[in-house]
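Narrative summary of target 7.
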Amino acid sequence: RELSQMDAEDELDLAEMEKLKSTERACLEILKKYDFTEWELMEWSEQQAVFNFLYDSVTLTVVFGPPVDDEFFAARPSRSIMSLDFESFLDEEQAPPSSCLVQKLIFQFIESQGCWQKKCPKLCYLPQALFDISLVVNRCKILGEELEFLQRWGAKFQLLETDIKDTEVKLLFSSSVAFAKFELTLALSHDYPSAVLPFRVQTHIGDIGEKEVAAVLSRVPAGHHYLQRAVISIHQNLLQGPR
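Modeled conformation, tokenized:
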């Protein structure tokens, strides 16, 4: 009887361990999905800290000032921050247009925040600043991947051309089945994909214009992979055949 009781307890322990392992796996998946740690620490000295973002194409240099009395950060006396300087190392001559767009949007965000030293006067504010930048870098990086996907596979969705100019993306759709050819221009910003994109439509052939595209886009919610979902929705709803 004692043995069977021990076996039952062992089984319960094993079941509990499996449950914990399963919970751990689920938590790790969530952490992986929402991991916005896009920075890499390159240097940390008495004078400064240097962080790299986006495959070393953006660098943040944080210059430290004197210690802050009675405040500690990571078990050391906290420091005041004299300046936060961002620099781009992207070779715009060599980089693909999607990378240039991503870089522009990241710096659009950086400039929109005003004086970073006021936002981050002491070391204890730095983790939040790194998180805020990482969040935008992460979104913009995914946008770059979406643009590359559309440039490579756009033909599957009757997308003839994906043209990137400054922070605008022009999508040229053409369908002989739907007897339609039109250009959709989307204005991107660093808020992507949390806000619906302003757009305009130029009709070349057929009767698909601003009204028809607006009706389709109004049903595409903002969020992850908005651009890809918008293209797929236009393809499914407007380009499959006569309307």
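The chain is about 40% helix and 30% strand.
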